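Customer escalation, tier 2.

The customer says the design service returned an amino acid string that "doesn't look like it belongs to this structure." They asked us to rerun it and document both sides in this ticket. The original structure tokens are below, unchanged.
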């Protein structure tokens, strides 16, 4: 019962953040150049790529794990509420990075933007560490 309530709250938070982002930020894909993205807390995530919702994604081969690792680590270090000195390939989001539920949602959304993927809430809830996130993205067929 508590888990179901937590899941409902997380879905509501994600929906709220998406609504805020779509109404207050311009979404455009500009090729290889990174774009600065705003978080729901008003901070900036430097280097997060922002993709248009109208971009069509075709299935592709998985990204190399080394590339995914570098990009995930760099992205996490660029998020204002994450202590860059605590980011590692094996960091636990809750215990090591001190991320609460809202922080975790913002991180997942930044990762979705960076890699042009959608991470369903049911999957995001199963990603407690940087290593799990790296594996998820490295194995995602549409990650770019």
């Amino acid at each position: 019962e508590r888990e179901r309530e937590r899941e409902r709250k997380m879905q509501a938070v994600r929906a709220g953040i998406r609504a805020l982002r779509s109404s207050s930020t311009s979404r455009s894909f500009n090729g290889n150049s990174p774009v600065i993205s705003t978080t729901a807390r008003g901070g900036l995530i430097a280097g997060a790529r922002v993709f248009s919702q109208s971009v069509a994604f075709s299935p592709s081969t998985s990204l190399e794990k080394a590339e995914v690792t570098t990009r995930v680590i760099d992205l996490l270090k660029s998020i204002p509420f994450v202590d860059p000195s605590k980011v590692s390939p094996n960091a636990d989001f809750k215990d090591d990075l001190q991320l609460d539920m809202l922080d975790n949602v913002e991180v997942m959304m930044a990762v979705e933007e960076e890699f042009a993927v959608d991470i369903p809430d049911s999957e995001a809830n199963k990603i407690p560490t940087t290593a799990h996130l790296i594996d998820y993205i490295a194995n995602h067929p549409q990650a770019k």
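Tier 2 assessment: The sequence is consistent with the input. The radius of gyration is 14 Å. Residues 2-24 form the longest helix (23 residues). Sent an explanation to the customer and offered a walkthrough call.
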